[in-house]
Amino acid sequence: MVPVVIFDRVTHSGTVKSAVVSSTVNTATVTTEQPKTGWRIGEQAPDFTLTTTDNHDIQLSDYRGKKVILNFWATWCGPCRLEIQSLKSITDKLPEYDAVLLAVNTQDSFNNAQLYAKANGLNCIIPVDPRGIVSGYYNIHGIPTTYFIDQKGIVTSIKIGPFLSEDEIIEQLNSIN
Fold this sequence. Notes:
By secondary structure, the protein is of the alpha+beta class. It has four helices and nine strands; from the N terminus they run βββββαβαβαββα.
């Protein structure tokens, strides 16, 4: 028996809640090896729950079975503004790739994210991470940063910097098996 302690922070409507769960695991019963959870290529993408600009709570794991483009951006970020057109143009084409775009607005107020999305006609899912907690799960040091995640939740590629064309995004989607 191995003692296990899990500490997790969860954001919901701007508040941070901490939870500690203790348990024991019988290592003899573990027969399948799960990929390590983390932000690196080949690792299981960290799950999270955030509220979107249209006031829905979503989890990354809600999109298992689909390819996920997980983009971190902010309204005050110049390079993020450069890639908005590429993200807008690809959004309507994502169903043919069985993919979804989660454009995580980070270190910005919920209100700013909501106003910017509306003013710029963004029609993708925009979760808001005002304190940058989820950005921390993904080791974000600069934005925009985009993770491509396969149907099983595994990180397949990472791009730091803006996408300047729709073709760049499609190329990454096509590389996911």
